[in-house]
């Protein structure tokens, strides 16, 4: 139990009705989960308005209500607090409730369209190898040092964030790396967190269903840097068109990294092979098991971050060379007949282009690149034809297939993907709605030395259709299929 007035510290309050000198059991933003003596925070969502569930929350036992608009009929004995913004109030209250846990460790936020999971997971790996207790909040999982919790979001809701950070405090965690998504920033899930530093990876086409315009998407990402304190650092990829924009209004210490231009942290790619790439960072050569130009950026961002957090240069370089690929990011399997299958989480046009560029640069002869790809339902529709175009232009054969259709019609999504294929590429393209059949077809088409790229789902272990998730793991399936087809 906590005193309501204590957890309201720092919240933008407009009016109060009743007493804040009351004890509350927990903070809750979903009326379906309210218990006795909880404080219910009404949040205006994308589907419904939490204010319409105030009565339900009271019936379930809530003793206090936080809202942006006071209800017309107030119930005696209940405390009502009118706030400027429900989402912000929720996040600040969550931080207060758990004792501002972000202050008790060094919290680093990673934002950008692509690379967040890779960078934050590898920083987690690197700091673990360096002997520290580490935390991670990522698309794949939440880690409280060695304890793993399943992730539901890239950036979880404010209560989950602060509860996890408090658990990290109890476990003695010193560093925590967290992905900061644009949805997370826009819904103020990160309000009230104390960051030690923040990293910007890159900005390209994604989530234009939610943010409407690219400028709005960019400005949302920028808010992470605008909100940093003077004591923090802000590290940006200055090769990216929007890298400098991120730092425009930050109070934090500005730091840059780049492969192409002058920057505080610089790297060069000396050699690229399937098994790894040779990089030159700060005049030192480094062998990285992760390949592709985009991973050179990721390695450099990690190197810079580890230095900004006080690790010693030579130790960082040694540990960087030991880092392993993150699940579902360029995860590959080479079959007995020398067919290479690559599973990659490329679900944006830029990521797909990068991965195909990397694969094409490694081709030694006229082996085929067979790409299996689709686009998620209930997500940015405008990226569908663009991804259809990239896949068909940059591969020798393509099988379009479903990727989490959610509530949309799989065949309609596929039509929108196909719409991006230019006339000269149509002969390369097949469409097979069932993802397992699509992967099987790619395996049947492949000859020794060919490369199959299965893009879009990476580490995901499910396929979601109409709210139902069935087990589905691209990597397991392609490995099984290649093995049985080659028997
Ligand atoms: C579009 C979106 O981001 N939605 C998130 C948002 O839900 P919402 O605004 O739609 O909520 P809503 O259903 O309208 O409800 C509004 C409020 O009423 C409450 N409510 C609702 C019903 C009820 O009976 N009682 C009740 O109290 C809800 O709890 C909520 O507080 O707030 C919820 C609580 O935090 C999130 O779970 C939910 O994530 C949904 C599931 C989602 O799919 N989000 C994705 C798009 C997302 O957030 N992705 C990003 C980035 C991905 C990336 O590029 O990496 C991520 O960080 O994961
Ligand atoms: N620095 C990068 N620049 C461009 N593309 C990248 C970069 N790093 C990874 N990618 C590509 O993007 C895909 C997704 O990478 P990752 O999961 O690290 O991104 P993310 O930002 O966490 O994505 P999400 O928004 O879904 O959480 C990878 O599988 C790879 O194809
Ligand atoms: N974080 C991204 C992941 C997309 C992955 C893709 N497999 C899909 O389901 O669309 C999103 O929620 O938009
Ligand atoms: Mg991620």
Automatic annotation (TrEMBL):
GO biological process: cell division; cell wall organization; peptidoglycan biosynthetic process; regulation of cell shape
Limits of the Mur ligase N-terminal catalytic domain: 25-98
Name of the protein in its database record: UDP-N-acetylmuramoyl-L-alanyl-D-glutamate--2,6-diaminopimelate ligase
Cofactor: Mg(2+)
Annotated Gene Ontology cellular component terms: cytoplasm
Family statement: Belongs to the MurCDEF family. MurE subfamily.
Catalysed transformations (reactions): UDP-N-acetyl-alpha-D-muramoyl-L-alanyl-D-glutamate + meso-2,6-diaminopimelate + ATP = UDP-N-acetyl-alpha-D-muramoyl-L-alanyl-gamma-D-glutamyl-meso-2,6-diaminopimelate + ADP + phosphate + H(+)
Leader sequence residues: none
Species this chain originates from: Cellulophaga lytica (strain ATCC 23178 / DSM 7489 / JCM 8516 / NBRC 14961 / NCIMB 1423 / VKM B-1433 / Cy l20)
Single GO MF annotation: UDP-N-acetylmuramoylalanyl-D-glutamate-2,6-diaminopimelate ligase activity
Binding site for meso-2,6-diaminopimelate: 379, 403-406, 456, 460
């Amino acid at each position: 139990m906590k005193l309501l007035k204590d957890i309201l510290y720092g919240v933008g309050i407009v009016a109060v009705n009743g007493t804040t000198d009351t004890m509350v059991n927990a903070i809750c933003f979903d009326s379906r989960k309210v218990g006795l003596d909880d404080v219910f925070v009404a949040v205006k969502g994308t589907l419904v308005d939490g204010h319409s569930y105030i009565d339900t929350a009271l019936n379930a036992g809530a003793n206090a209500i936080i809202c942006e608009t006071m209800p017309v009929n107030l119930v005696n004995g209940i405390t009502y607090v009118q706030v400027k913004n429900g989402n912000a109030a929720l996040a600040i209250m969550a931080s207060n409730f758990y004792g501002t846990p972000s202050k008790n460790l060094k919290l680093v936020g990673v934002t950008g369209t692509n690379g967040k999971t890779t960078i934050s997971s590898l920083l987690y790996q690197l700091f673990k190898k360096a002997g520290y207790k580490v935390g991670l909040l990522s698309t794949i999982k939440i880690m409280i040092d060695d304890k793993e919790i399943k992730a539901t979001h890239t950036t979880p809701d404010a209560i989950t964030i602060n509860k996890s950070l408090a658990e990290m405090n109890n476990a003695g965690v010193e560093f925590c790396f967290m992905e900061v998504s644009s949805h997370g920033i826009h819904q103020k899930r990160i309000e009230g967190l104390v960051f030690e530093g923040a990293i910007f990876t890159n900005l390209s086409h994604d989530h234009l269903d939610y943010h409407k315009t690219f400028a709005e998407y960019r400005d949302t990402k920028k808010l992470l840097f605008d909100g940093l304190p003077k004591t923090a650092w802000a590290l940006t990829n200055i090769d990216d068109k929007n890298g400098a924009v991120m730092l425009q209004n930050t109070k934090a210490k500005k730091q840059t990294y780049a492969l192409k231009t002058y920057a505080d942290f610089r790297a060069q790619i000396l050699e690229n092979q399937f098994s790894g790439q040779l990089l030159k960072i700060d005049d030192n050569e480094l062998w990285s098991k992760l390949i592709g130009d985009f991973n050179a950026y990721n390695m450099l961002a990690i190197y810079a971050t580890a230095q900004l957090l006080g690790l010693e240069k030579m130790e960082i370089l040694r540990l960087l060379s030991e880092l392993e690929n993150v699940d579902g990011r360029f995860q590959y399997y080479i079959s007995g007949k020398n067919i290479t299958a690559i599973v990659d989480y490329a679900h944006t046009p830029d990521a797909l282009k990068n991965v195909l560029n990397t694969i094409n640069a490694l081709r030694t002869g006229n082996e085929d690149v067979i790409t299996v790809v689709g686009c998620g339902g209930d997500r940015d529709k405008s990226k569908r034809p663009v991804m259809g175009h990239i896949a068909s232009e940059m591969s020798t054969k393509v099988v379009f297939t479903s990727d989490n259709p959610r509530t949309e019609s799989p065949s309609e999504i596929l039509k929108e993907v196909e719409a991006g294929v230019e006339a000269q590429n149509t002969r390369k393209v097949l469409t097979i709605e069932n993802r397992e059949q699509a992967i099987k077809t790619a395996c049947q088409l492949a000859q020794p030395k060919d490369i199959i790229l299965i893009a879009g789902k990476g580490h995901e272990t499910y396929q979601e259709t109409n709210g139902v998730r069935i087990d589905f793991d691209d990597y397991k399936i392609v490995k099984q299929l290649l093995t049985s087809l080659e028997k």
